Amino acid sequence: MCYSLLLSTTSNRDLAAHNNELVRFSRDLPTIDAVSDLKHPHKWYVGSRSGCSCSFRHLYSVELGFGEPVRWYEEESDDIEATLQVIAIIRELVAGGESVDCIDAWPTETASTNELIVPLATVSDREFRFFENYHFIFTETPA
After folding, report:
1. With 15 labelled, which of 43, 96, 98, 122 sits at a CA distance of 20 to 30 A?
2. Gap between the terminal Cα atoms of the chain
3. pLDDT tens, residue by residue, 91-101
4. Are 137 and 114 spatial neighbours (Cβ–Cβ below 8 Å)?
């Protein structure tokens, strides 16, 4: 089973222009329930070097919150770099006045996702990671 990272935005920019060996934006969305929870008209599937969305920084428990990579919890350097690239694109869109949300979901999950407001002013790029079954709402300022 693989993660599906879904993103939507008010921006009509072609995010596929950012595609490289670590991150792939595609308008081909998986047929999972979470797609209908996206809030904005321009929807993207965000794939990683593994083809699915598994090769990003993920954590099951939101209780641990955002945090920089640590030595005792091994993460692949490519996964860290891929996550840095995605959050940089999200940050750029939000700073430009666009709205952005994303969902980190399992394709077989039918349960609704929990919303998580992400104030980009207080979460650094290195701290950012995705939480399983969460719907991220990105804001420029603290809530």
Report:
1. 122
2. 34
3. 999 999 999 99
4. no
